[in-house]
Amino acid sequence: MYALIDAAFALPLWVWTLLLVVGYVTYIFAFKNARLVMSNQSRELFTPTWQKDVVYLYGFPRPRVIPDLSPFGLKVETWMRMAGVKYERPEQGINGRPRWSRKGQMPWIELNGEETDDSFFILARLTNHFKDLDTTLSEEEKCVSQAFLQMLEHHTVATYFWYRYVIASDAFWREVRMPFPGYVRWLVQKLTKMGWKKKGHLIGIGRHTTEEQRQLWQADLSSVAGYLGDKTYFMGGPRPTMIDAVLFGHLCQMLYIPIDYPQTAYLRDKCANVVAYVTRLKQEFYSDWDDLLATHAPPSEKYRPTKND
Ligand SMILES: N[C@@H](CCC(=O)N[C@@H](CS)C(=O)NCC(=O)O)C(=O)O
Q1: Which one of 22, 58, 67, 308 has the fewest beta carbons within 10 angstroms of its own beta carbon?
Q2: Ligand 1 center to 101 CA (angstroms)
Q3: Substitution site in 58, 72, 100 for ligand 1 pocket (most atoms within 8 Å of beta carbon)
Q4: DSSP SS3 for 198
């Protein structure tokens, strides 16, 4: 042991420098920023034979209980249904060619041979290209819509992600039954839990007690219920607007993934108008909901691991 330490101290400075540089670069590429570093490079289209004005939406493989695990992916898909935009969702899977956005996240899209990522920028582009669902809103209503969007996407989401990825992660991964081989699922579960513990601590949600967290998400959900009231769509017009797609993306996560989210009980007991609203949107825009869930592939059928995994 001492001989080893002596030998290490005897190494010349340039060897130490080289070891440190190689170690650091390996760490950055292997664990940390590989996706981000790669992301800025231009890359081939995922769907090279695209049709004009068809949106190719990329996200996680469909889970068993809900069309998309990502509230951001479900928001984009719902918006496209509301706007009547033609889209496809090319299959991505562990044995297919799973690909993250250039920023290392899901969802992302290709439209007319050009890639766009982040649901905010995706909807901005689709709105510009196809249709503006928010034209009927006054300037003041647009501000309200934006405030709710940010609350849901940066605060509410953290409260229920913390629950599903940290507190109830076993139940969560069991219920959604992603079409990954068992060992990949195990790894994804562990990494997501570790990631969310760190992220939850940084943004603060993970430092609160369960009771304090409850006060935080309850304030959000009761404001959604209060603003919705007995309106058909959130902003009160005769047709849905963008915020309805955002709300649907998040509320479905809490209402249809059966893992005893405390939020689910609260919504069912205290926010009957919100539950009825989500049910209405689901009926109106997802008449094929069950068919979408049926496309879920258990690991043994579609995603059998190969030697390339
Ligand atoms: N601001 C992004 C957020 C997207 C996002 O957080 N996606 C999650 C899945 S729900 C993701 O890709 N997480 C993996 C990661 O960030 O490394 C959007 O609106 O699209």
Answers
A1: 308
A2: 9
A3: 72
A4: helix
